[in-house]
Amino acid sequence: VSSGIVLVAINPYEQLPIYEQDVIYAYSGQNMGDMDPHIFAVAEEAYKQMARDEKNQSIIVSGESGAGKTVSAKYAMRFFATVGGSASETNIEAKVLASSPIMEAIGNAKTTRNDNSSRFGKYIQIGFDKRYHIIGANMRTYLLEKSRVVFQAEDERNYHIFYQLCASSSLPEFKDLGLSK
């Protein structure tokens, strides 16, 4: 097993015009090193190697809380959806990453850096057909912070679901959940 390129990115905590459609097209088809380091360069390299070697590729997005991992994954998927010919047809990025409100309630919490921080890891698998067009995707999640259930650091909160349940305890539907005690 060999490792490919490594990209170190910094979350600017604001939207920058470096992730637009025209930037995707600028990186599409380029060789690594011909352009500035970018998440689109990493995605292009993986896409080209998948097509050339006909082997599965992986992109690992890692970092501390608030580093922008989820957003980086979205940008990579936007790149694949655009170069894979499915951006306008299926909006695969939105379908794959649109966490349901229930999943977000169970897996997200307020941290000192983010009021809605995902506290679970994600494994996203994107399927391509023989023409290298996206044909589907699935996302598996796993909780990383079980300790948050019984302890929270100062200025942080438990998972959203606990506060949502408390806030809705007076609703008639709540009685059916068997959680009144």
TrEMBL record:
This protein's UniProt keywords: Actin-binding, ATP-binding, Motor protein, Myosin, Nucleotide-binding
Spell out the InterPro entries in the cross-references.
Kinesin_motor_dom_sf, Myosin_head_motor_dom-like, P-loop_NTPase
Tell me, which GO biological process terms does this entry list?
A: actin filament organization
Which residues are listed for ATP binding in this entry?
Answer: G63, E64, S65, G66, A67, G68, K69, T70
Annotated Myosin motor domain residues: 1-181
Can you list the GO cellular component terms from the UniProt entry?
Answer: cytoplasm; membrane; myosin complex
What top-level branch of life does the organism fall under? Eukaryota
What GO terms are given for molecular function? Answer: actin filament binding; ATP binding; microfilament motor activity
Note the Pfam families from the entry.
Answer: Myosin_head (PF00063)
> Can you tell me which family this protein belongs to?
Belongs to the TRAFAC class myosin-kinesin ATPase superfamily. Myosin family.
Protein's name according to its UniProt entry: MYO5B protein
Gene name, per UniProt, is: Myo5b_1
